[in-house]
Amino acid sequence: MKAKIKTYYFSPTGGTLKVLRSFAEPLAMLLHADVEYHSYTLPQEREALPVFDKDDIVVWATPVYAGRVPNKTIDFVRQALHGAGNPSVAIATFGNRAYDNTLAELVGAMRDGGMRPVGAAAVVTRHVFSDTLGAGRPNACDLECLDDFAVQMAGSILAAQRGPVPELIVPGEAHPEKYYTPLKTNNAPAGFLKAKPSCDIHRCTRCGRCKDVCPMGSIGDRDGVPSFDGTCIKCQACRLECPAGAIAFTDPEYLSHVEMIERTFAEPKRSKFFTLIKRKKE
User: Fold this and answer.
1) Between 3.30.2290.10, 3.30.470.20, 3.40.50.360, 3.10.180.10, what CATH number should domain 4-178+268-275 receive?
2) pTM for this one?
3) In what helix (H) or strand (E) does residue 161 lie, and over which residues does it extend?
4) Are 256 and 221 in contact (CB under 8 A)?
5) What are the backbone angles phi and psi of residue 151, rounded to the nearest 5°?
């Protein structure tokens, strides 16, 4: 039977999917394998758990939210990542601040579910809160590194299919208790957990795109205008999808946090890659 790579991703604004494709396509070519893409971004896509055959290779991709796997998806992720020794790869995307415990949490879920993690990557993407933080990422260097990572993963996956492999080591806590606390410009905690977007009804075209892309299914409709009544995870999908630019986040605590991260984390970070075998120094 031809090898199959099954990928799963949470990607409200498309950045994580771009990174995933940039890794999975060369990996599939190297392994002469078919690749499937499965989104769990929208509520209806999380209604059923995936089923993995014993020969499937699993690649799981998620953005970093407050230093961890997004809290509104973590239960689904933990339930979904169950296999029978399947080689697996964890990918986290982060907006040039930090990936904190995300890789450790994802790799830990894979290991707890009976999979065999063989590699992990934390890749810089543009921060969805900002037009400048991480702008242009992933860049050419990031994509070249993903190609190289795919080569290394192809070797590790083949090794895992033949027998036991070393335990993958990634930084962070596999079962963290806390999330990163966002700060304001004065370094005090920024309290925007319950903040929601607003819509300029004079600019709104009543297209309904914001409602279609909300990963929480939280956007309603009042006389054709979006209403933001449910849980908001600040993913920015509605704002970035709006063709009229009618949606905005104006909460002062949120805006202060955006200003802080743009100021504090402007220096470009490097994407990080973790493999079973350390590369020799050139």
Assistant:
1) 3.40.50.360
2) 0.96
3) helix 140-162
4) no
5) -65, -45
